[in-house]
Amino acid sequence: MSERIHELLYRNLQEVFGEGDAKRRRAAIEALYTEDCVIHTPAGSFVGHDALDQFAGELRATHPHFAYTPHSKAQALASAGRLAWGSGPRGGAPEYTGVDVVTVRDGKIEALYVFLDSTPT
């Protein structure tokens, strides 16, 4: 299970929040998240694939040239995991950082908690 949690954390960072192509992002959401997923962020909470897709797309549109980079190795414990990351211009210093915490059910993310260390500029 821990390998799958690591995979989900890394893929979520790149294929959902780091993806600018709407079709690829939606395919990743369907592959990585349960249909009834809940995402908790400082901007609010979102339920389901449609809400996550809209939130991730709108966030990506505000910083289309930013890359998400893991700042640590993913960690897994039972059915949960966490990953520290940063986001900023490709090849540059991150403009904001955070930690994703997930809970997993049936091999997919059922809940994502996004903790920001600093806010996007």
Automatic annotation (TrEMBL):
It holds the Pfam family SnoaL_2. InterPro entries: NTF2-like_dom_sf, SnoaL-like. It comes from the Bacteria. Residues 15-109 form the SnoaL-like domain. This is SnoaL-like domain-containing protein. It comes from Paraburkholderia caffeinitolerans. The lineage of its organism: Bacteria, Pseudomonadati, Pseudomonadota, Betaproteobacteria, Burkholderiales.
